[in-house]
UniProtKB/TrEMBL annotation, chain A:
The chain crosses the membrane at residues 16-42, 71-98, 105-126, 158-178, 216-237, 263-285. Belongs to the binding-protein-dependent transport system permease family. It comes from Streptomyces triticirhizae. One of its GO terms (biological process) is transmembrane transport. This is Sugar ABC transporter permease. InterPro entries: ABC_transporter_permease, MetI-like, MetI-like_sf. PROSITE patterns: ABC_TM1. It is found in: Cell membrane. The keyword Membrane applies. GO terms for cellular component: plasma membrane.
Amino acid sequence: MKRETIRSPRAGRPGIAWALPAVLFFFLFAAAPMGIVGYLSFTDWDGLSDPSWTGLDNWSRLWNDDGMRNAIWLSLLLTALSWLTQTPVVLLLGVWAAGRQRNRAVLSAIFFLPLLASSVALALLWRTIFDPNLGLAADIADWFDLDNADLLGSSTGAFAAILFVSGWQFAPFHMLIYQGGARQIPQSLYDAASIDGAGTVRQFFHVTLPQLRNTIVTSTVLMVVGALTYFDVVLILTRGGPGDATAIVPYLMYETGFRAFDLGYASAVAAALVIVATGTSLLLVRLTGFNRMRSTREGM
Amino acid sequence: MRSPNLRPRLRVLAVSAACAVAATTLAACGSDGPGGSSDRLEVWVYQDGSTTIQEDFVERFNETSDIQVNLTQIPGENYQDRMRTAMGSPNAPDIFFNWGGGSIADFVEEDMLIDLTDTLADDPEFGDAFIPSILDAGAIDGRHYGVPMRGVQPVILFYNQTLFDEAGVEPPASLDDLFSLVDTFVERDITPAVLAGADPWTELMWLEYLLDRQGGAEIFDRIRNGDSSAWGEPAVLAAAQNAVDLVEAGAFGNNFRSVSYTTDGASTFFAQGEAAMHLMGSWEFANQLSNQPEFAESDLAWATFPAIEGGTGDPAALVGNPTNYWSVNANVEGEKLDAAVEFLKLHASEDYASALIANGDIPTTANAESLLDEAPTPEYARFQYEMVRNAPSFTLSWDQALPADQSTPMIDNIEKLFSGQLSAEQFVEAMLNL
């Protein structure tokens, strides 16, 4: 009789009450703030007095703002370059880490370290490393006989620094995703491939890569949304500078909201970011067919 | 063995857990603000090397007071953001550290602060204890909303005595001297003046003095009081041009934009004898004394910022932070307000002044002069004290004096000016268009 209780259809699906804490949290800390931000984006608010309704003023300002255009361009550039530079590296690292080589566990643990430290600590660390007189950057510039190590002082240098640090910081996370994905590929596929005479490289391109298709989509969506909302390292490492060379959308939002206290306009920037990031990830999921979740292991 | 009763019971548990979560979250949003039932005074202070004094005096105050002071130290450079955000919420502090002027102007406009003018005037022991110009520097429209609570922090031209001796030169008396010093040190392969361009407020210090010497303190005074057309004064253009010329002459080396002050990049470079000068707030001395004591004792020297030929500014005028202030939230009332005033009065006492002196600070109380000999470096203390006493004006740092919506783009423009993205003319235009 007890077994029947467990087997009944209801037993497999927990009651709706189980979802309540998560739903409440979602409404309190995600949906409600988002709604408030949406409302604030139609107001002028300095954070102290009451918001005053200004209709579409913020939105038309957003449309014509050169700073915002620059920020969108930089955000898109950061997103695209992050994906292009990180994916090959983490894919290879992840597949490698899924193997059974000697020292693999030790090296994987070392690679994993950046993910364990707080972003702020990492950004401060890199700021010290990039110091042109005292940091590691100064030594490297010496080795290559460069004039100076003014990396953070040049527009491209500062942008490259952000790209590098963000890649370095999140590589272990994506490596872990690929490691998990690669571990799930049945050994029999490799056995069959080697019987057919495929070497390591062909096995990688014809077995591993196709099998990792859904993993690639997962990692890509996370990378894209992550890069679009990247913020903390920019704040500490470059502060959007030099000039506005690294002022990506989330940083612009912060500067408008919590430095200039123009919270109405900052809300419009934030709302635009939510729309763009949500739209991008939906588009990615749709384009890649991820939403249909077809099994990549047909016939297995 | 699983009991059939398990699931319903778990459901009840889940519902009650969810309710508990919701209840606490909602409660946290709504209550426990100042002036509420809490009988403690929440005091917020910017965390730095002088915070130990606040800890001591809060402890001392709590020994005798029924209403306890709870000191919260807010670390780092984001103090201003956090304080401002908190002031708009029910969790605002009762008493908080600030820079006076623009840093509290918005609060004053919203009637969020207690006007301390009469409190200071009614008690001579309290009100007359402070140097009047310092008390006034934090005032808004002649009303006092803050009580000085830290030492004076003028911006000083620090230099390396040993490097100056080796080159056979003296600290600059004029801008021309400064330019020839730049050439001298560039030839000797020494960075003439270290500048932490990754923290643009250090660039601001140069521009503040260049404008002050060029056109006097009146120009920024007009800007501060809302007349932004004063950015169009010829002196502003001249100051910006001088800044650009200094950059181009190599005064700051060729990589200053990557140098950071907050991670000690500039101070360490200066202490290593790689740079000859460092324009910085007076706290730099205490900083060097604790981090590089050998350098601070044998090489570190100080001077006032040079005059400019043909400039109308008084060469004795100062820029920087006159001091920091405690302000009181207008929600504090009744017994809590009495306790808050008692707490503020503690900062006019000679004990407090002595504690500041022992920490290497110059107090803003009128009696400070007699205490200067107790300072760790009396020579430096006396220089600073006389500098402040003789200054015809003490201009509050522009980024603190202006309201937040102007100071943020101003700092961006200054950064662009120093990095060559804006010419002096474009800088003036950008400032006029703010």
